[in-house]
Design brief:
The protein is an alpha/beta fold. It folds into two domains: 153 residues, P-loop containing nucleotide triphosphate hydrolases (Rossmann fold, 3-Layer(aba) Sandwich), CATH 3.40.50.300; 71 residues, Signal recognition particle alu RNA binding heterodimer, srp9/1 (2-Layer Sandwich), CATH 3.30.720. The chain contains eight helices and eight strands. Strands 2-1-3-4-5 form a five-stranded parallel sheet, with helices on both faces. It has a three-stranded antiparallel sheet with strand order 6-7-8. The longest helix is centred in the middle third of the chain and has 22 residues. The protein is globular and about 60 Å long.
Length: 237
Amino acid sequence: MEKIRVMISSTIKDLIAERDAVNKVFLEIPFIKLIGAEPLNDTALAGNSRIVTTSMAKSCDLYILILGNRFGFDVGNGKSATEIEFDAAIRADPTKILVFKKESPEEEPDEKQKMFIDKVSSFYNGYWRTSFLHTHDLQTYVKNAFSKWLKERASIGTNLTYLDHFVRLAKQISPEPHSQIYYKVTQNDVELEYVFFNRSHEIHFTREEIYKNFWGCFNELSNQFDRWLEDETGGSY
């Protein structure tokens, strides 16, 4: 049976206990294969570390990001190895990422890590971030999130592109409960049409926009819903 490939990504030295806790969650599941830097510690590969780990981030089925207070090693372009892995994962499939943040009441993240955390969990174009204090809490949150993710994936299958996921999610939201939703994918754009109150409303996103700012496009779609409703109801909805 083909296994689900799960990658755990984080700085390592400061999050040893947290990584171990998440590892133990998945080691109990026979159809899971853990990949990433840690499973490679007992072997050797004829390849560059950055290329190997980013390839894993792209190809994994589920990417789990654990954020601590350390930014880690700057690889030379202002980004850490963890951030580079995150960027690779989101470009491959924005819907396969789960984010967990360790809270440390007596310690603040360093400046670069603050910027990375803001990027990851931005309200506009980032991810829902689940915070935890203790490793046993982290294990519970990971189990719950994985169960929800697995149920959703079972219903949609695999081999979907970022564009497939965008259309799939866009069809699940609407400005009005009885809206009719239509879409068209062209060579360069995704065209969405929402028909409600006997009127048609359209919005277009380019493939490049969706690829570079997946969740930001959804935020813009939600903002457009608000504008359409204000136009239709005079702001009284």
